[in-house]
Amino acid sequence: MPHSSLPRLLATTALCLLPFAGAQADTVWLKNGDRLTGTIESLDGGKLLLKTAYGGGIKIDFAQVKTLQSDTDLVISDESLDHDYRAKLVAADAGSVTLNGIERGEETNRPVNDQVKLASVNRVVRPRPFLNEATFKGRVDLSANQKFASTNTKDYTLQLNTELRDGRWRQRFGADYTRSQENDTVSTYNYGGGYTLDYFMSKRAFWQGRLAYRRDFVEDLSRQITVGTGPGYQFWDNALGAFSMSALVNRVNYQYKTDETENAFAAGLGWDYVRYFSGKDVELYTRGEVLRSFNSKTNYTIDGEIGTRYNLNSMISLYLKYARHQVTGSAEGVNQSIYSTGLGVKW
Q1: Are strands 47-52 and 35-44 parallel, antiparallel or unpaired?
Q2: How many Å is the Cα radius of gyration of the chain?
Q3: 135-346 maps to which CATH number?
Q4: Residues whose CB falls within 8 Å of the CB of residue 244, separated by 6 or more in sequence, listed in order
Q5: How far lies 331's CA from each of 220, 240, 335, 347, in Å?
Q6: How many CB atoms lie within 10 A of CB 132?
Q7: Which of 68, 125, 177, 330 is the most exposed place for a label (fewest CB within 10 A)?
Q8: Segment 268-313, tens digit of pLDDT
Q9: Rounded Cα gap, residues 143 and 153, in angstroms
């Protein structure tokens, strides 16, 4: 080979190897001798969730893990939940792993490089950066039921929820539609929508602005418009779930079928909770808001839901939920409960 060709060959080889040098992967060694690579998403309830390019999300019985390692820091809790670590996992002897990072306490952070038993590791989650690139996610839930017998019954429920996160800003949009009909009689027919804008002043605290609209074609209370603003707090947000609450001052407008209108100021308490179990197969969630009027014959309003979901895969799920919409204190209030089950699709 000519001497002048050697530098060109070395440069070409280095460029070819560059993508592989930057590639990162976590590794899990199993007791049966298998080795799996991917990204460790979470450990909870004895299930290790490993995200892979070749098989999607793989759930592993943690009792079958020999040892494991991560290329980045993870948030780790031990069996007693008294110790919380921000550390890399380093492969160690069979049945053990080395934690290389810091132990986080109430008053101080202590550097650690300790080998611990895998059986003592209770929970692992991947930390989410406070300021990150824009992310967009959403979900559509659909329930439809038709029965043809002595009476013909048709029930439809549709719900959409989306979230856009970009740095300190978080935007949420939701919409729902419900219609129930027996023969020619419509018993339930309403729809609604809401938009929420959050600005995070710190990692936990945020300021929220909210706009909500609800239209009903059956109840005496035909329209409800709510505009509110106030502080909120994000208690946690990780791979195993999220929980936030907000306290808003609202301006509420009620309109009735009689064309009577009512305007009031109201204090509002909102919540949004979701928790995943069994390797994110099972999901428990609740969200909603309670309003208490200051200067109105309408005392309080409840608008919320609670449900559970079984995720068939990363996109499709089956759900069961209970939704409540109640307006009390007025002679023309609303007392509505909706049970539904159906199919959900997320992205």
Answers
A1: antiparallel
A2: 26
A3: 2.40.160.40
A4: 232, 233, 234, 235, 237, 271, 272, 273
A5: 9, 44, 12, 43
A6: 10
A7: 177
A8: 999 999 999 888 889 999 999 999 988 777 778 899 999 999 998 8
A9: 14
